[in-house]
Amino acid sequence: MQIDTLILGAGAAGMMCAAHAGGRVVAIDHAKAPGEKIRISGGGRCNFTNLHCTPEAFLSQNPHFCKSALSRYTQWDFIELVEAHGIAWHEKTLGQLFCDVSAKDIIAMLRGLMQAAGAELWLETSLVEVTRDGDLFRVTLERGGRRNSLVTRNLVLASGGKSIPKMGATGLAYDLARQFGLRVTETSAALVPFTFSDQRFAPLAGVSLPVRARAGSGSFDEAMLFTHRGLSGPAMLQISSYWQEGGDITVDLDPEARLYEALRAKRAEAGRVNLTTELARHLPQRLVDALPEHLGLRLSGNLADQSDAALQALCDALRGWQLRPQGTEGYRTAEVTLGGIDTDDLSSKTMEARPCPGLYAIGEAVDVTGWLGGYNFQWAWSSAMAAARAI
Ligand code: FDA
């Protein structure tokens, strides 16, 4: 059997590409259903894009690489597509767009588009082997215990990254990229909670508060959540993409820098109020109780007992809490994989491999990783469209 395009992986990028590539297209996936990560994303409502999607929200060895695809298929294009299919959506926070009803609506839309385009979807199908034969690829697949061969002009690597192996993530795209002469940058788990060796935050598990979190060049004002294993919440997931193993993270517990003036004002008005009582009006009580242990602070006396210098020192400590995580929860819970197929070996306009014409790489398999908040799906849609238009 000869086809025009074989797409390996029927996730977000693979389905989007299959729906728009034209010609005879087959998308295969070893899973029982397509788009499983779409289904579970955004708490079942899929944070499918972000209103503020710009190249600055993406990490890559080449930060310019994502610009072309993102500008030629934008968040507005995907919103138009979603609306044309009658999928109602809402903005939750920070430009993050979610389905009103279910992430399954996005999967149904993509399946419908594939069907309308005549693209085939072969589930529970795995790749046995692929070889190059002139301008073509010869592929052996295993489907329902049977092997079949096909020949294709274009081969699209859309099998994602390594995050959540339980959901079927494999290193297939990286292996094939290497087989055809492309480089793969170092990969690591990203958008992932931090762990601490001594479970020191277990007594605070469940406490959440807005912070400014920093690691490397990343700085995010979002919520932080204490867990039994360490630190999570959007602020921590975001900076995990910027954190280097063995390095520190910095947490600012007073991101709006209001505490010092607030404590001084309260001291002037009611100096007999206990310092910890007043702090608990600004920070969660359980955290205030744990501050002496974690930040080495002595929180005794009334507000009237505190000099300006003492209040300033307290606020400085709260604003610059340095922590050294033991590690992260790894690929087991990571939302994405940082790194991947080296963008130097791909055309930013078409996603075609320079060393191997006819080979394309899209989505998370490529060394382009977005922030939390719908950016990774937008990269899947945009990179898929770049390849589909070129095919
Ligand atoms: P994706 O992983 O979607 O698809 C790859 C496909 O290839 C899968 O169907 C897999 O089964 C298949 N495959 C893998 N290996 C194979 C093999 N050897 N043989 C055959 N098939 C194979 N992003 C976002 O923007 N907003 C959000 O709300 C969320 N939420 C979220 C929640 C959770 C829990 C996770 C884990 C991730 C997110 N993400 C997210 C990230 C987002 O899911 C991710 O960036 C995209 O799904 C990437 O799309 P791809 O198509 O590249 O890979």
Notes on the structure:
With 391 residues, the protein is an alpha+beta fold. It has helices spanning 12-20, 36-40, 66-72, 75-84, 104-117, 172-179, 234-240, 259-269, 275-279, 285-295, 308-319, 375-390; strands spanning 2-8, 25-28, 47-50, 58-59, 89-91, 96-99, 120-122, 125-133, 136-143, 146-157, 188-190, 194-195, 208-215, 218-226, 230-232, 249-252, 321-323, 327-328, 336-338, 359-361, 369-370. Strands 1, 2, 7, 8, 9, 10 and 20 form a 7-stranded mixed sheet that branches. The two termini are 19 Å apart. Dihydroflavine-adenine dinucleotide (FDA) is lined by residues 9-14, 29-31, 36-37, 40-42, 46-47, 126-127, 158-160, 163-164, 168-170, 172, 335-336, 363-365, 374-377, 380. This is Aminoacetone oxidase family FAD-binding enzyme. Residues 189-336 form the RsdA/BaiN/AoA(So)-like insert domain. Its cofactor is FAD.
Structure at a glance:
29% of the residues lie in helices and 25% in strands. By secondary structure, the chain is an alpha+beta fold. The protein starts with a strand and ends with a helix.
List keywords for this structure.
single chain; about 400 residues; alpha+beta; 7-stranded mixed sheet; 7-stranded antiparallel sheet; binds dihydroflavine-adenine dinucleotide; FAD; FAD/NAD-bd_sf
Radius of gyration: 24 Å
As a percent range, the share of strand residues is 25-35%
Mean pLDDT: 97
User: Alpha-carbon distance between the termini?
Assistant: 19 Å
What is the SS-derived class?
Answer: alpha+beta
Low-confidence stretches: none
Could you tell me which ligands this complex binds, including any ions or cofactors? dihydroflavine-adenine dinucleotide
Instruction: Please give the share of residues in helix.
Output: 25-40%
Number of helices: 12
Main beta-sheet annotation: 7 strands, mixed
Shape: elongated
Total count of strands:
21
